[in-house]
Specification:
With about 80 residues, the protein is α+β, with helices and mostly antiparallel strands. About 55% of the residues lie in helices and about 15% in strands. The N and C termini lie far apart (about 35 Å).
Amino acid sequence: MSSNIVKNTKESSIEVNLLVSILIRYPQISSINFETHNNSLNLTFLINQDLSNEEHIEIKDLIEKSMNFYHVLKNIENKF
């Protein structure tokens, strides 16, 4: 087995563990889907109350800032 395959397997395992941890820690996230055709990760959030437009924008901004920070940490081009 090549070292590249081992490295990819270890990285995949770490990333899967991270996703599972996120789902457990944040019950608002109902699902995480990876789309291979465009290499994107889609998170679905559930909110159990009506939000004002201002609250919706605040949550959206917080999520985008969090994702942007993750992209910086992982050195990934942001595609928002």
